[in-house]
Design a protein that fits this description.
3-stranded mixed beta sheet, 378 residues, binds nicotinamide-adenine-dinucleotide, globular, 7-stranded parallel beta sheet, alpha/beta, 14 helices
Length: 378
């Protein structure tokens, strides 16, 4: 039995009845987060453009059924302002973005317009709404100036970005910082940014992302074409950073000034793994032995080594990774096989969310037991 059990977990009691506005709710992370918030009883409105893939998790899991779904372009400030005025959210979580590195080389103007001006529109509309207490801007691990070194980036390191996507997210961070100093601090609104690693999970059908590419190749029994087999990325299940965003919003709500800053939510260091390792694990779990890999050979520049230091979230928020990469890949393969066999995917997502929360709880108890052991056996 543990002593002084302080659970570090998302608190459904906190979220019940809260008015939450989510941008990007039709996307991969947004759909999972919408389902999680719905399961806790939040009053939820999402603003985004329609899903960009077919199939899309938003449709497959019937996400719109438990929330107010609004189709709005974040490049249209008047429309965003009208949504905020009408809905009067207390908490805003900003996920909407053009999130793909390769596409950003093809469409840099669209990428900057969405990721930089779009963020400014959300921040400006939030401060004018008069109801917002907490805003979280979701950026990325790629916002850091990348030195290709082996250490994880810390929150106080410089912003950068070689490609338009990474740089647009670095810009979004700088905008957030300026809005915090110029407006939000004075208005008593908590404003944080969140930088996560490469997220994986069931229901991602994006182009040029590793897990969707592997699953498409496995389904079609075709060779997999990959860009950079040796590139190292901080992989994590989508529920990991989402739990971080939710815990951060709860902390900000309680103490706005203390938590208004930037936060990394990455995996433990051993789960920053090369692309090739992930490919082999997924194909093993899928049960394929006819799989072959080809290198694409025509690579745009992408970072080779990228890791996040998560000491701050661990020590100040009590957040920590729960599912390691192997468990995360297990969940992804199980999700996808269920989808192929026609299961109810909304219910499967809800089961995985519940399983995640119960695993967080179990890992908190085991940490607490270790503390107890130490304190009783000096
Ligand atoms: N998936 C990852 O590995 C990863 C890693 C780090 C950070 N992120 C960040 O997390 C967020 C969500 O990413 P995702 O993987 O769910 O991407 P996604 O492409 O699945 O979803 C993007 C969402 O943004 C919306 N959107 C795009 N352009 C818009 C516009 N002009 N107006 C309104 N809505 C618009 C889309 O409709 C969708 O709802 C993004 O900010 C992304 O940069 C993702």
């Amino acid at each position: 039995m543990g002593v002084s059990l302080v659970e570090k977990n998302v608190s459904p009691d906190f979220w019940r009845g809260k008015r939450v506005l989510l941008t990007g709710h039709t996307g991969f992370k947004g759909s999972w987060l919408s389902l999680w918030l719905q399961s806790m009883g939040s009053t939820l409105r999402g603003i985004a453009i329609e899903p960009s893939t077919t199939p899309a998790l938003f449709d497959v899991a019937h996400v719109a059924e438990g929330m107010e779904h609004r189709v709005v372009d974040i490049r249209d400030f008047a429309a965003i302002k009208a949504q905020m005025q009408e809905f009067q959210p207390e908490i805003v979580i900003h996920l909407a973005a053009q999130p793909l590195v390769l596409y950003s080389y093809q469409e840099p103007i669209e990428t900057y317009a969405t990721n930089v001006m779009g963020t400014i529109h959300v921040l400006e509309a939030s401060r004018r709404a008069g109801s917002v207490k907490v805003l979280i801007n979701v950026t990325t691990d790629k916002c850091y100036e990348n030195h290709e070194w082996v250490w994880g980036y810390r929150e106080n390191e410089p912003m950068g970005g070689y490609d338009p996507y990474s740089s647009s997210k670095g810009c979004s961070e700088l905008v957030t910082s300026a809005y915090r100093c110029s407006f939000f601090e004075r208005a008593g609104i908590g404003l944080a940014s969140a930088r996560a690693g490469n997220v994986i999970g069931g229901g991602d059908w994006s182009v040029d992302r590793l897990i969707p590419d592997i699953l498409r190749a496995l389904e079609a029994d075709m060779p997999l074409i990959i860009r950079s087999p040796r590139a190292v990325r901080p992989w994590q299940h989508v529920l990991e950073p989402l739990s971080g965003y939710l815990m951060l919003a709860e902390a900000l709500y309680a103490e706005r000034q203390k938590y208004s800053s930037a936060w990394n939510f990455g995996p433990d260091d051993e789960d920053a793994k090369p692309v090739q390792w992930v490919v082999e694990k997924v194909t093993g779990k899928w049960g394929s032995n006819t799989f072959s890999i080809q290198s694409s050979g025509k690579n745009q520049h992408e970072a080779n080594c990228l890791k996040l230091d998560i000491s701050k979230a661990k020590s100040q928020l009590g957040w920590k990774p729960t599912w390691n990469l192997d468990q995360a890949l297990e969940k992804v393969v199980a999700w996808h096989k269920n989808w192929l066999s026609g299961s109810d995917m909304r219910s499967l997502c809800e089961q995985q969310i519940a399983a995640y929360q119960s695993d967080v709880k179990a890992s908190n108890i085991s940490i607490d037991e270790n503390i107890y052991e130490l304190s009783t056996n000096p």
